C-alpha cells in the first residue's frame, strides 16, 4: 500500500476496500516514523488531516466521489493555506499565517483531496538542493547523506519515500523536475499560464509555475487536471488555453510515428557519463517503441543559465521587497529608526542565498546596468524561445537528461553557488521559454535515480504525457522505491 | 538682461473608479483607516494585481480630450523603493510605454493671447498609502485605504513661461478632467496634486538646471511656490551660484520652499517590466467607442453658447465652468426658450450670487431651473418689473412657492394699464406744479424726478417703460 500510486489508492477507495481515514492514517504513521530521517515535512497537523479524511468519507457516502476524493496530497511550503503556517521555509515569515488559500489549494479541496502538511523547500524556492531551507536540509530517501534536489526537495523526498502518494511543487528553473529526477519520481511543470499563481509565494513571477510530483505519469495527469484552468484573479493565467484530456493522454503504450528531438547541447562532455549513458539507453528504448530520434540543435542553450540568473533574481529582488517587517513577518528587536528596522529585520530574516539573489537582482536592475544585464537577458530569453519554436517545426517532443548529475552529497556544493546553479542547466531553458516539461525516472547512475526530461510545445502537455506514459508502460523504473522505507510506518 | 522662466508640470490625478486599480477594494474617501484593504493592496504574499479596466478607459478618454495619441498596447512597470506606506515595496506604474502620449492644452491669457501647451504623456499608476507621524504617541501609523487607488500622471512639456501660464494650464486641465467625469479632482482631498519643474535661463539659451516643487494641491500655493523658486534661482545665479537639481517642498505657512533631497541621494527606482501584468491591449474600435461617448468640452460649450444663444464671452465662460453649470443653464433655457440671454443674466448674475451667499451650489439650489423659468416668464410678459423679480427670487430662495403664487400673494403684478398710470401721473403733476413748470421751461433733467415720484406712488408696480412713455406725453401739456 504505501508505495501505491494515487490511482491505485483511488481504485481501492472507489471499490470500498479502504477509506480516506485509513489511507490518511497510513501516511500519517509513515510521516511520524520516517520524517526524522528525511525532514521532508516542516508542518503537519495530524488531527486536521484526519478531520479532512472523515469529511471526505462522509462526502463520498452522501454525494459520491470527486476527482481526487480522499487522496492525500502534500504541498510545498510556498503555497498559502488558510490552515496552518505558510513560511516558504524562511525565517522572515516565521509567524505568518495566510488568511487565504492559494487558488490551486482551493481547487484541490474542491476536488476532494486531503491536504497533508507543508513540505520542506529551499528558502523562497531559491536553491537546487533544499539546503537553503530555514528548517534545515531535507534528505534523499535513496541515500540520506545526499540532497533530494531543490527547490521542491521536501515534496520530492516525501513522495519518493511514500510519506505521501503525491505532492505539489513549484518550478521556476527546474524546481519540480530536478528533485523529481534526483529522487526517482515523476514531476510536471505545465505551460506558463496554465496554472494560477495566485496565493503561491512569488519567486520569479514570469517563470514560476506549480505542478504535481507523483509516483507515475497517470498520477501527474490526475492532479494536473484538477489544478489547471483560468483564474481571473491572475492576469498571467491564460483564459483561452487549449483544453487537454489529461487522462486520455496517459493511455499511450507505444511511440509509433513520434519524432523525438535530441538536442546536442544537452548531451555534453561536462555531464556525468553514467547519467548520460542512462538517458541514451532510455532514448534507445523509445526507438524500440517506434519513435524516431532526430538530432536537433538549440543553439542558445549555453546562455540560458546566465539569462536566468539575471531575470529570476531581478524579479525576485522586487517580489521580496514586501517582506519589510511593517505588516507581517519577522521584525528585529528594538529598531532605532526606519532604516534600522528594514535592514536588521531583513538581515535576520533572510538566509544567505536569498540575500545573494536580492543583491544580484537589485544590481542587474540598477541604473547604468539595466541595459547590459536585464535587457540583454530578455533578448537571450527571446532567442531561446525561438530555438524551441524552430525545433518543434521538426519534432513532436524533445528528450533530454533532467539533471547533468545524480544526487550529490549534502554540503558538497553549498560553498560554490556557481556549480550549484549549473545543476539546473537542463531545466532552466524550459522556464525561460514558458514550455511544459516533465521528468520521469529512467534508471540509475551510481545507484541513484536518473531523470528523463520531456519538453513539449506550449499548451501541448499531452505530447509529453503520452511519450512519458508509453515509456513508463515499457519500463519499470517508476515502480522502484528506496528499500530503506519499505516497512510500514506503524511497524517501524 | 532678462530671464526666461521654464516650467513643466506633472499632475497626479485620482481616477474616479468604484474600486481600486488592481483589486476590488472600495475607493470611497474618508473611511475608517485600513478598512478598505484586502490581501492584494496590503501586499500579502502570493497576491496578484488585476487591472481595473475602467481606469484605463478613463485614461483613454482623457487622452482623447486633449488630442493625444492612444497606445493600443501599453505596458506596466515596477518602480522600486522602500517606504512603510508602499506595501509591496514597489509601485505599479507605466514607465516605458504609457497609455497616452502627446496631446495639448490650450490656454488664453488674461490679455486674451492664446497659447498651446504640450502634454508629453499620461500614464496610469497606483497610489501609496498614507503615513501619519504626528500626535500619535511617537508612533507612526499607516493607513492603506489609499494604497492601490488608480492615478493618472499627466506630464506636460516644459512649455510654460510664467507662473500665470502654469496656473492657466492647470485650471484648464482641471476643468477638462472634471467635465469628462474621470476624476472628482477635489484638490483638498488630494485628488489633483501637482509637481512643478522650474528652471530659468537667458532667452535663447539651453534649459537651465531645474528643481522640482513636489506635491502641491492648491492653485494659490503652486503660483506662490513657482514665483518663489524663480526668484530664488535668479538671485542664486546672479550672485554667482549654481542651481542644484533637487526636489523641494513648499511650506505654505512660511511661504518658502526647502530641499527634500539632492540628486546625490536620489533614488534609483530600478524600473523593470511588471511580470504580473501582461501588456494592456485595446482595440481601435474600443478607443472609437470611448471617443463616441465623449461629453462636450468647455471650449466647445463656450463656442456654442456664444453662437447659439448669443451670449457674451463672459457669460459663456461663466456658464461653461463646470458640466453641472452648463447642464443647469441648458435646462433653464429649455424651460424658458424665449430668451436665452435673459436666462444667462439671471442665472449668472442673480442665482449664482445668491447661492454663493447661502453657501450652496447648483446641486443643492432651492430654486430649480423650472421655478426660475417660471419667474423669467413673468418678466418676459411684463407681468412684473425686474426689480420685483429680484425680490421674488429672494423669496423663492427661502420658500417653496413658485413665482406666480408669490406675485399673487404680494400683489406685485405690474400695472401696465394706461388709464391707471395716467391717473397716477396726473396726481403727481398736480402735487408738483413748480416742477411741471420747470420741465416745460426746458429742465429735461426733471424727468427722472417725475419717474421716481410715479413709481413711488404706484409702490413700484407701474411698468417703468410705460411710465416713461406716458410722462413724456402728458408733461408736454
Task: Describe the 3D structure.
The complex is a heterodimer of chains A (492) and B (477). Chain A has 492 residues and is α/β, with parallel strands linked by helices. Chain A has an 11-stranded mixed beta sheet, sandwiched between helices. Chain A has 15 helices and 11 strands. Helix content of chain A is 38%, strand content 13%. Chain B is an alpha+beta fold and 477 residues long. In chain B, 40% of the residues lie in helices and 19% in strands. Chain B is built from 15 helices and 17 strands. In chain B, the strands form 4 sheets. In chain B, strands 1, 2, 6, 7, 8, 11, 12, 13, 14 and 15 form a 10-stranded mixed beta sheet that branches. In chain B, α3 links the parallel β13 and β14. Classes of the chains: A alpha/beta (492), B alpha+beta (477). Chains A and B meet through α9 of A and loops of B.
**Strand count of chain A:** 11
What helical percentage do the residues of chain A reach?
A: 25-40%
Major sheet characteristics of chain B: 10 strands, mixed
- Second rung of CATH, namely the architecture of one domain in chain A: Alpha-Beta Complex
Gyration radius of chain B, in Å: 30 Å
CATH class of one domain in chain A: Alpha Beta
Per the CATH scheme, the topology name of one domain in chain A is: Amidase signature (AS) enzymes
What structural class is derived from the secondary structure elements of chain B? alpha+beta
Question: Per the principal axes of the C-alpha atoms, what is the gross shape of chain B?
Answer: elongated
Strand order of the largest sheet of chain A: 1-3-2-4-6-5-10-11-9-7-8
Number of domains of chain B: 3
Distance between the termini of chain B: 74 Å
Compressed to H and E, one letter per element, the order of chain A equals HHEHEHEHEHEEHEHEHHHHEHHEEH
Pair with the biggest interface:
A-B, 42 and 28 residues
